[in-house]
């Protein structure tokens, strides 16, 4: 399947209360087939980084499972379904010919109606074109639980070529992308693919020295302090589970604990910042939500009010990815997840079935990945908003 980055999809606020009320007839049919949700992983990476090699590796290792995958070299609407080494091409019924250009529901519905015809899959891998911006694609599959989708976004895996990634990050941005958010700054496709990743696979490690590899890894970790980073040759990892599949990147926040202090200036364009969150009262929780709306929706950082001065500051920043853990004064634990303008705050299960429950030493924290992030200014702004609540 060809995933085109030219046209951004319609973004939908997954927190919007009306969203849960939308009925989905295909989902009702699917519930007869299986109650289990099917994980979908987006595989992205610059041209030639090793995406196809990685997808083929997963298909080989997962022999016997029914996996649907879309290939950027494929014609626009086909998904290939593999099981027991047998491959069949399946056509998606998409409103505008391509998942990225279709409205959110039709991308999900096209895959769901395919599952209604073919039976459910064990896994879906969506390989993007080398120039795709995964931030446009992720919200299509990150569906509110209330909508009852049978697909869930498991995570974004970004492949980078160890030998060429630094050059790709330093190259001039592609001209004429027509994306107002990225105009006038040094933002490359490589930046976008790394900043949105939940897992980053530094591939082709055989083509660099250990010192070069160290430099590459530091640069990448400086951009995205949340993603797990793996070094590979021919995209091979010790095991698939939690390395490339079953990532649960959107329903857990374990990765926050790996990030003690993230802010680094190793990359001039994108960085990761971490802001501590004290236990919040209900009023502070709604203040946090309104602060997030200002930052994510309007790109306005509310500043500490000084009498007689404008209390809002506009600056050139943009958030690509957001994760957070909130403790409340009523002893609840919540998780924040966000991609670009879309965010949600949901209760976090303290005793998850995978054993990754909460521990007392863990603290409330908000981690932001994006362009032009000043950790001190963001920290001051958030503290002031919470103290005023
Ligand atoms: N030396 C070396 N070559 C690799 C490695 N991984 C993949 N390759 C080769 O690199 C080339 C590109 O790999 P692909 O998997 O096609 O890359 P891709 O990201 O799908 O490329 P596009 O579809 O063009 O975006 C192929 O010839 C692979 O065999 C590796 O770890 N080391």
Care to describe what's here?
The protein is of the alpha/beta class and 389 residues long. Helix content is 26%, strand content 24%. The strands form three sheets. The protein has an eight-stranded mixed sheet with strand order 4-3-2-5-1-6-7-8, with helices on both faces. It has a five-stranded antiparallel sheet with strand order 9-15-12-13-14. A two-stranded antiparallel ribbon has the order 10-11. The radius of gyration is 21 Å and the shape is globular. It binds guanosine-5'-triphosphate (GTP). Guanosine-5'-triphosphate binds at residues 45, 47-53, 72, 130, 159, 203-204, 206-207, 233-235.
Helix/strand layout:
Blueprint lengths: L24 H9 L4 E8 L5 H11 L5 E4 L7 E6 L2 E6 L12 H15 L4 E5 L6 H8 L9 E11 L3 H6 L18 H7 L3 E5 L6 H14 L4 E4 L23 H4 L11 E8 L4 H16 L2 E3 L9 E3 L3 E10 L5 E7 L2 E6 L16 E8 L3 H13 L2
Parallel strand pairs: 1-5, 1-6, 2-5, 6-7, 7-8
Antiparallel strand pairs: 2-3, 3-4, 9-15, 10-11, 12-13, 12-15, 13-14
Helix pairs in contact: 1-3, 9-10
This protein binds guanosine-5'-triphosphate.
Summarize the model shown.
Helix content is 26%, strand content 24%. It has ten helices and 15 strands.
Distance between the termini: 48 Å
Rg: 21 Å
Structural classification: alpha/beta
Question: How much β-strand is present in the residues?
Answer: 15-25%
Large-scale geometry: globular
Low-confidence blocks of residues: 1-34, 72-76, 176-184, 351-358
Overall pLDDT metric: 77
Number of β-strand runs: 15
Name the hetero compounds present. guanosine-5'-triphosphate
- The portion of residues assigned to helices is 25-40%
Main sheet: strands, sense, barrel:
8 strands, mixed
Strand order of the largest sheet: 4-3-2-5-1-6-7-8
SS field, number of helical segments: 10
SSE topology string: HEHEEEHEHEHHEHEHEHEEEEEEH
Protein name: CobW-domain-containing protein
Domain CobW/HypB/UreG nucleotide-binding: 39-230
Family: Belongs to the SIMIBI class G3E GTPase family. ZNG1 subfamily.
GO molecular function: GTP binding; hydrolase activity
């Amino acid at each position: 399947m060809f995933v085109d980055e030219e046209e951004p999809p319609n973004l939908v606020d997954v927190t919007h209360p009306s969203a849960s009320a939308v009925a989905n007839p295909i989902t009702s049919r699917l519930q007869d087939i299986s109650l289990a949700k099917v994980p979908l992983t987006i595989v992205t990476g610059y041209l030639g980084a090793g995406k196809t090699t990685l997808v083929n590796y997963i298909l080989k290792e997962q022999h016997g499972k029914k996996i649907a995958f879309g290939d950027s070299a494929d014609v626009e609407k086909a998904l290939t379904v593999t099981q027991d080494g047998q491959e069949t091409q399946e056509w998606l019924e998409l409103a505008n010919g391509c998942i990225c250009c279709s409205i959110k529901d039709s991308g999900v519905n096209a895959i769901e109606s395919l599952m209604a015809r073919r039976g459910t899959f064990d896994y879906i891998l969506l390989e993007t074109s080398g120039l795709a911006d995964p931030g446009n694609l992720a919200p299509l599959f990150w569906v509110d639980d209330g909508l009852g989708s049978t697909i869930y976004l498991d995570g974004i895996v970004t492949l980078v070529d160890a030998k060429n990634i630094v050059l790709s990050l330093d190259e001039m941005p592609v001209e004429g992308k027509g994306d107002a958010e990225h105009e006038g700054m040094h933002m490359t496709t490589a930046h976008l693919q790394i900043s949105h990743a939940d897992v980053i696979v530094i591939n082709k490690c055989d083509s660099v020295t250990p010192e070069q590899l160290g430099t590459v890894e530091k640069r990448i970790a400086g951009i995205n302090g949340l993603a797990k980073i793996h070094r590979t040759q021919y995209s091979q990892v010790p095991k698939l589970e939690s390395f490339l599949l079953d990532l649960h990147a959107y329903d857990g926040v374990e990765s926050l604990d790996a990030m003690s202090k993230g802010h680094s200036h190793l990359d001039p364009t994108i960085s990761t910042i971490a802001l501590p969150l004290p236990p919040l009262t209900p009023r502070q929780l709604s203040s946090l939500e309104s602060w997030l709306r200002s930052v994510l929706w309007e790109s306005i950082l509310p500043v500490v009010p000084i009498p007689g001065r404008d209390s809002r500051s506009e600056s050139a920043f943009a958030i690509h990815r957001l994760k957070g853990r909130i403790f409340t004064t009523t002893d609840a634990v919540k998780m924040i997840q966000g991609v670009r303008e879309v965010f949600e705050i949901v209760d976090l299960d303290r005793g998850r079935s995978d054993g990754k429950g909460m521990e007392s030493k863990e603290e409330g924290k908000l981690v932001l990945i994006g362009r032009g992030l000043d950790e001190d200014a963001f920290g001051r702004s958030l503290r002031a908003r919470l103290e005023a609540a």
